[in-house]
C-alpha cells in the first residue's frame, strides 16, 4: 500500500517509507523465502526516493545496505558491484562526517574486509558521538581481540560493562 501511495504521489518521503516497510518485513523473519524480493523492492523504492532528493543520507545508507545484502544473497563476481555499498557509504560520510549509520556500516564493512585499523577508527568516532552506546565499545573490544591486543580488548570490554553499571 505504501509503495502504491508513493507511486501515486511521487513523493520522496513515501518512497523512503515504502522501502523501510519492505526492510522491516525482512526483520520479521515471517517469510524468509521472500527476503530477497523484499530487499529488491526496498532498493527500488530507495532509488526512486534518491532521484527526487539525492541528499537523503538515510536513504543512501539504506540503499548501500540493500545492495550489500543483494550481493550477498545472489553472489557477484563483479568488483564494481562489491564496492558499491562502500562507495555509497563514503558519499554519506563525505556529506555528513557524523552520520551514525553511515559510520557504523562503514565500520562493519571494514571489519568484514579485515581492514581492522579503519574499523577501529570508525568505531572510535562512533564512541565519541554516542558515548552511551555500549555496542560501539563491544565492537572495539572484538576488533582488538581479533588483532591479538588482549589488553586493549579488555579495556574496551570493561568500558562497555561500566556503561551497564551506570544505568
Could you outline the blueprint of secondary structure elements for this entry?
Blueprint: H1 2-9, H2 12-28, H3 35-52, H4 57-74, H5 79-95, H6 100-112, H7 116-129, H8 134-147, H9 150-166
Helix pairs in contact: 1-2, 2-3, 3-4, 4-5, 5-6, 6-7, 7-8, 8-9
Task: Give the percentage of residues in beta strands.
Answer: under 5%
Low-pLDDT stretches: none
Which sequence of SSEs, written as H and E, runs from N to C?
A: HHHHHHHHH
Q: Sheet with the most strands? A: none
What overall geometry do the principal axes of the alpha carbons give?
elongated
Helix proportion of residues, in percent?
Answer: over 70%
Q: How many helix segments? A: 9
Structural class category = mainly alpha
Mean pLDDT: 92
- Could you tell me the radius of gyration in angstroms? 18 Å
Instruction: Count the beta strands.
Output: 0
Spatial gap, N to C terminus: 41 Å
What brief labels describe this structure?
167 residues, mainly alpha, 9 helices, 81% helix, elongated
Characterization of this structure:
This protein is an all-alpha fold. 81% of the residues lie in helices and 0% in strands. Helix 1 (2-9) packs antiparallel against helix 2 and helix 7 packs antiparallel against helix 8. It is elongated. It starts with a helix and ends with a helix. The model has no long low-confidence stretch (mean pLDDT 92).
Amino acid at each position: 500500500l505504501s509503495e502504491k501511495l508513493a507511486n501515486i504521489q511521487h513523493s520522496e518521503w513515501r518512497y523512503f517509507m515504502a522501502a523501510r516497510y519492505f526492510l522491516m518485513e525482512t526483520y520479521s523473519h515471517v517469510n524468509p523465502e521472500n527476503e530477497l524480493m523484499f530487499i529488491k523492492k526496498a532498493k527500488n523504492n530507495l532509488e526512486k526516493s534518491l532521484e527526487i532528493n539525492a541528499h537523503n543520507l538515510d536513504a543512501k545508507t539504506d540503499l548501500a545496505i540493500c545492495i550489500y545484502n543483494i550481493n550477498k544473497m545472489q553472489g557477484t563476481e563483479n568488483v564494481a558491484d562489491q564496492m558499491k555499498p562502500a562507495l555509497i557509504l563514503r558519499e554519506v560520510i563525505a556529506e555528513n562526517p557524523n552520520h551514525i549509520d553511515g559510520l557504523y556500516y562503514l565500520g562493519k564493512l571494514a571489519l568484514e574486509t579485515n581492514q581492522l585499523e579503519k574499523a577501529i577508527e570508525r568505531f572510535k568516532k562512533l564512541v565519541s558521538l554516542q558515548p552511551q552506546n555500549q555496542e560501539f565499545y563491544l565492537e572495539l573490544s572484538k576488533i582488538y581481540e581479533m588483532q591479538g591486543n588482549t589488553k586493549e580488548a579488555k579495556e574496551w570490554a570493561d568500558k562497555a560493562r561500566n556503561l551497564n553499571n551506570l544505568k
